[in-house]
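// run 5 | inverse folding | seed 20
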């Protein structure tokens, strides 16, 4: 598959066209950003680690019946994926209160939620990805109510599967962000990465942060945490 024109460049990834109009190449970069791009750094091998972690998680989710855009990994940093039309929404799912929710609502970080909390924000850099609700999303034409229903249902399923997977490796899945897209045949599928960049992952015994909060909060040894997650996942999912 030939890498064609650069279709899109985000903070941590690039998307290239290929000679197949229904297939793209997703390239994982070493860049890390936080606070809407105000904080930026490069971490050697981050792209490779996130690609490897995403691959392990997607293989597991696909085996568990979750529809995704992932086709296969073609190099340390590159994946072939179905070309989808991305819903401009960040779908956040929380099991333990942390980060922006803890701050906004004055809740102690680490409080276990009695329910699963779903949030959506509008993917729009200029506006700083504002938190919105379903009615805003429909009014803005970002998704229909039926599409939102399907997206929440899939997110809930993904949460259950991921909670089980991370429990197996001694990690609490605090929260995560996912994105969805629509394929050429109209199927809604999970898209984008699932890695320590977009999940909060706490060690079950020590509550150590094994995710991007190490970068956001200057906790040090950012890549050590990503390697730890990769090693535990690859050991648990060894065939
Ligand atoms: N998240 C993400 N991209 C974003 C915002 C959030 O991947 O642009 C992830 C983040 O890593 C965490 C979850 O979504 O796992 C919830 O993030 P939160 O709303 O608490 O925001 P933050 O504290 O990161 O500002």
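// decoded
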């Amino acid at each position: 598959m030939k890498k064609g024109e650069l279709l899109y460049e985000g903070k941590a990834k690039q998307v290239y066209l290929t000679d197949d109009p229904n297939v793209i190449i997703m390239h994982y970069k070493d860049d890390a950003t936080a606070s809407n791009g105000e904080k930026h750094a490069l971490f050697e091998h981050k792209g490779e680690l996130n690609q490897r972690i995403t691959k392990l998680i997607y293989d597991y989710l696909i085996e568990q019946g979750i529809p995704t855009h992932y086709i296969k990994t073609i190099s340390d940093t590159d994946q072939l994926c179905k070309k989808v039309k991305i819903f401009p929404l960040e779908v956040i799912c929380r099991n333990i209160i942390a980060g922006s929710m803890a701050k906004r609502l004055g809740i102690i970080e680490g409080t276990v939620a009695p329910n699963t909390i779903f949030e959506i924000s509008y993917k729009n850099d200029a506006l700083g990805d504002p938190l919105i609700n379903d009615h805003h999303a429909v009014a803005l034409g970002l998704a229909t109510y039926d599409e939102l229903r399907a997206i929440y249902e899939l997110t809930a399923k993904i949460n259950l599967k991921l909670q089980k997977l991370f429990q197996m490796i001694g990690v609490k899945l605090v929260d995560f962000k996912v994105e969805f897209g629509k394929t050429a045949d109209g199927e809604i599928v999970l898209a984008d990465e699932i890695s320590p960049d977009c999940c909060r992952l706490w060690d079950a015994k020590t509550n150590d942060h094994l995710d991007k909060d190490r970068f956001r909060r200057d906790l040090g040894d950012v890549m050590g945490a990503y390697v730890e997650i990769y090693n535990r996942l690859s050991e648990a999912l060894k065939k």
